[in-house]
Design goal:
single chain, alpha/beta, FAD/NAD(P)-binding domain, 2 domains, 7-stranded mixed sheet, 5-stranded parallel sheet, elongated, binds flavin-adenine dinucleotide, Ferredoxin--NADP reductase
Length: 331
């Protein structure tokens, strides 16, 4: 049992959690930041490290990984206790405090909690049929860790959402050939991305579903993807070096039900001050819903300060806090 009592414990080290942690430290609060993955950064770092983001204030163009670097550098100015590779499994009220249990059997005690778990611990939606598990990571990928893994090889990307279309476009710039396999004729992606796709030399294979993936019998470096044309019995085989599956992610809202936090669908309902139905439990970022919510980093960045300020007011009503200029914190 950790004897320390934190003012605020933030569950989730994505952009929302990282910036909230820094903002709370700037107010001299005792802060714990807990992240289930071995590294901070959330979706930009894990799902699209090398894709560019164009709607962060004062950063005209930044890659997912560079955004994480900047957030890390900022957090290091006033660092907090970080619990990496640690998942919170339950939150329980004890007297006026919250006890957070981790998957490592630890308990983190805190006065306030900010839930910033995004879509939950990342679990990519996998191919639904059985295949040789040795294909995973080497031949079948669910994440892009390094785009150079796709350089100069034949690649198939599966999926029809923003992520699949964006990755197909980015990969096509370095791959030997790229195809995009989608079960519908229409994509669920931004119009501008679909325009780019249509102007590219990416081979669009739709409407097809993948029925099987096997090593190519003549060349073990290649894989054969068996495709079935929707509403027909026509089968086709595409031979490539790598398959990137982008079917989205399974969200973890089941765990939230056990935490007794009020939900609207898979999202946490919050007030204008980011409060949940539980005392001193706040939520920010992609996991929340309220009228007008946008699932964007810019919005997540704004929600952290709102939650931290409300927590500060609840915990220390007599304390002098400021809301305006941060220059008073210059050392
Ligand atoms: C392909 C793609 C492109 C995008 N492009 C843009 C863009 O251009 N501009 C933009 O503004 N937004 C973009 N987004 C959306 C943006 O990435 C999200 O809005 C943002 O990441 C939300 O941040 P977050 O911190 O709320 O959640 P996340 O980034 O999801 O981070 C949540 C973190 O919590 C951790 N976690 C989950 N459960 C637990 C637990 N129980 N215990 C401990 N840790 C836990 C997760 O591992 C994760 O690291 C894009 C998203 C995708 C998928």
């Amino acid at each position: 049992m950790n004897d320390k009592i934190y003012d605020i414990s933030i569950i989730g080290g994505g952009p929302a959690g990282m910036f909230a942690a820094y903002f709370a430290r700037l107010r001299n609060l005792k802060v714990a930041l807990i992240e289930s993955l071995p590294k901070l950064g959330g979706q930009p770092e894990t799902l699209y490290a090398q894709k560019h983001i164009y709607d962060i204030a004062a950063l005209p163009k930044v890659s997912g990984t560079d955004l994480t670097k900047q957030l890390t550098e900022q957090l290091e100015i006033r660092n907090c206790d970080q619990y990496l590779s640690t998942s919170i499994t339950s939150i329980v009220r004890k007297d006026d405090l919250w006890e957070l249990s981790t998957n490592k059997g630890e308990t983190i005690t805190t006065k306030a909690v900010i839930i910033a778990i995004g879509n939950g611990a990342f679990e990519p939606r996998k191919l639904t049929f059985d295949y040789d598990s040795s294909l995973d990571d080497e031949k079948i990928n669910y994440f892009v860790n390094n785009i150079d893994d796709f350089k100069d090889v034949d690649v198939a990307v599966a999926g029809g959402g923003d992520s699949a279309v964006d990755w197909a476009i980015d990969i096509s710039k370095i791959a030997k050939s790229t195809s995009l396999i989608h079960r519908r004729n229409k994509y669920r992606a931004m119009e501008s991305s679909v325009d780019k796709l249509n102007k590219s030399d990416i081979q669009q294979l739709n409407p097809y579903i993948i029925k099987g993936v096997n090593y190519n019998p003549d060349n073990k470096d290649k894989i054969d993807i068996t495709l079935k044309k929707i509403k027909t019995n026509d089968l086709d085989v595409v031979t490539v070096d790598k398959l990137l599956v982008n079917y989205g992610f399974v969200s973890d809202s089941k765990i939230l039900r056990d935490w007794n936090v009020e939900l609207n669908g898979p999202f946490i309902k919050v007030t204008q001050e980011m409060e949940t139905n539980l005392p001193n439990v706040f939520a920010i970022g992609d996991i929340v819903t309220y009228p007008g919510k946008l699932q964007l980093i810019a919005t997540a960045f704004a929600e952290g300060p709102i939650a931290v300020t409300k927590a500060l007011r609840n915990l220390y009503p007599d304390k002098d806090y400021f809301e305006h200029s941060t220059s008073i914190f210059e050392k």
